[in-house]
Specification:
The complex is a heterodimer.
Chain A (H helix, E strand, L loop, with lengths): L19 H26 L13 H5 L5 E2 L2 E2 H15 L2 H4 L4 H29 L4 H24 L6
Antiparallel strand pairs in A: 1-2
Helix pairs in contact in A: 1-3, 1-6, 3-5, 5-6
Chain B lengths: L1 H63 L10 H8 L3 H7 L8 H4 E3 L7 E4 L2 E10 L4 H15 L3 E2 L5 E4 L11 E4 L5 E2 L4 E6 L13 H10 L7 E4 L3 E3 L15 H7 L6 H20 L5 H4 L2 H10 L4
Parallel strand pairs in B: 3-8
Antiparallel strand pairs in B: 1-10, 2-3, 3-9, 4-7, 5-6, 9-10
Classes of the chains: A mainly alpha, B alpha+beta.
Chain lengths: 162, 308
């Protein structure tokens, strides 16, 4: 291939500053996610600490189900891991980072988390036939974070522009 | 001067060009931003649409098997089964020859202990394991619901009508209740009812792992119905033949017959309730003397060999 036919390497693109609101919204959400995921992880080790109702809202039925593990790993652990990483990525320093990878990682984590939540909702509604209150809290937080990420990060990374 | 005029004119022309170019870029950028925001909100919309689809599928599957169409029991039926007079319990005692205690119940040793923390208090725990299609469960639930009502309450004063499978010849369409979606609370012990299959044999409730372990240990055939009261008293068989209820088509018909202590149906149901009550009294935390010292429950305890 001749040098002329090689694509020209564009100059490294800059990162637009994040809107101020997203800094104040995402960190508390991520911390709340850590709190609930921590509680669910504690429940995994000590099921008797669980306080939940029976009937359609029955977290013990969900947390004890086969779907409460993914590839042998308790989903509560995965949730805690995700939210610890998300918290780090939602600190003001991370939001102000000029490194595109940081923002890309945050967006990817939010998208993967959202996809996983969709699977868990399907499992709760269609397989287990019970809904876990605490898990629903985590799902709502994941959805809120997903909205924050998809409405801000693409613009920050300049994907919306030429 | 003329040179200055030419330069100024050129600069103005250039300025005009750059303004036009800037305007063009801004319009393009705004258009791109709009499309970027659209993509973002479309992805949010897709997530919402997927969740709504799950909910819709769930609703359709519920209406498809007609589970929910049975609805809650009428207040009158609820009162008749949850407020059986003490005189009925004591008059019937365990007089029914249709309920053979040693075929229906087994006595264990409380080992290992089976407890549950309810609102911060550790209580002896119990559970019922059955299925909505099962006619044996349908017959047994009558005595169980009546016994439970002596020790606690059903949330929102609500039970739900159910009929056993229409095609099971052991007792087709036996009127009964379901424990699915029903919450029960008592200060003396914890109870949860698990209906693991619906009226059409489709999977319903999922057992928590500790309950699953106990079912496998004490009910190795996984037969319905089964009840474990604190690993001490076990219901291991149908309380009585479901065909006993064969002439009844509604819950109301059976419930209103409960006043008649000479009826074989009343005797079978109330005897079952007294046996289950005795099992609860043997394990519950400070159970009510008004129930556990009653002659009907004492007679049941003696028949089962339980010390109260």
């Amino acid at each position: 291939m001749s040098a002329a036919s090689l694509p020209t390497s564009p100059a490294r693109r800059t990162v637009e500053p994040a809107p101020t609101w997203v800094l104040w919204v995402t960190l508390p959400l991520a911390l709340l996610g850590v709190a609930i995921a921590t509680y669910l992880t504690i429940i995994h080790f000590n099921p008797k600490a669980l306080h939940c109702s029976a009937g359609i809202f029955n977290c013990s039925a969900v947390l004890d189900s086969a779907q409460s593990k993914f590839l042998g790993i308790p989903v509560a652990f995965l949730g805690l891991f995700q939210y610890v990483v998300m918290t780090a990525l939602c600190t003001p320093w991370a939001w102000r980072s000029k490194r595109r990878e940081v923002h890309l990682a945050r967006l990817t984590l939010a998208a993967v988390g959202m996809a996983f939540v969709l699977w868990l909702i399907a499992a709760e509604l269609l397989i287990i036939n019970n809904i876990c209150e605490y898990c629903t809290g985590v799902h709502l937080i994941t959805f809120a974070l997903f909205i924050c990420m998809v409405t801000t990060i693409p613009a920050m990374l300049g994907w919306n522009e030429d | 001067l003329s040179l200055l005029a030419i330069l100024l004119d050129d600069a103005n022309r250039r300025g005009g060009c750059s303004e036009q170019r800037h305007e063009h870029v801004m319009v393009k950028r705004r258009r791109k931003r709009k499309s970027g925001a659209l993509i973002a909100w479309v992805s949010v919309g897709v997530v919402v649409a997927i969740v709504l689809t799950f909910v819709l599928v769930k609703e359709l599957s519920n209406s498809g098997n007609q589970r929910t169409s049975f609805g809650p029991t009428s207040p009158q039926v609820f009162d008749e089964v949850t407020q059986v007079p003490a005189s009925v319990f004591n008059t019937v005692g365990v007089s029914s020859t249709l309920v053979v205690p040693h075929n229906v119940f087994a006595i264990g040793s409380h080992e290992p202990s089976f407890t549950e923390k309810v609102n911060g208090v550790v209580l002896p725990a119990s559970f019922y394991y059955g299925a909505e299609f099962c006619p044996y469960c349908a017959a047994t639930r009558w005595g169980l619901v009546i016994a439970l009502s002596r020790f606690g309450t059903f949330a929102n004063n609500r039970l739900y009508n159910m009929w056993s499978s229409a095609t099971d010849s052991a007792g087709p369409n036996t009127p009964t209740f379901t424990f699915y979606g029903v919450k029960y609370s008592s200060p003396y012990f914890a109870f949860t009812g698990y209906e693991v299959e619906d009226r059409n044999g489709k999977a319903l409730a999922v057992l928590p792992s500790n309950v699953h372990t106990l079912v496998n240990k004490y009910n190795q055939n996984l037969s319905f119905p089964f009840m474990d009261i604190a690993n001490k008293t076990f219901l291991v068989n149908s309380a009585f033949d479901p065909l006993t209820l064969g002439g009844y088509t509604t819950q109301g018909a059976i419930a209103s017959a409960l006043k008649d202590t000479t009826s074989p149906v009343t005797q079978a149901i109330i005897s079952t309730a007294n046996y289950i009550s005795a099992g609860i009294c043997a394990s519950a935390k400070n159970p009510p003397a008004s129930v556990c010292h009653s002659s009907g429950v004492q007679a049941a305890a003696t028949a089962l060999g339980l010390k109260l």
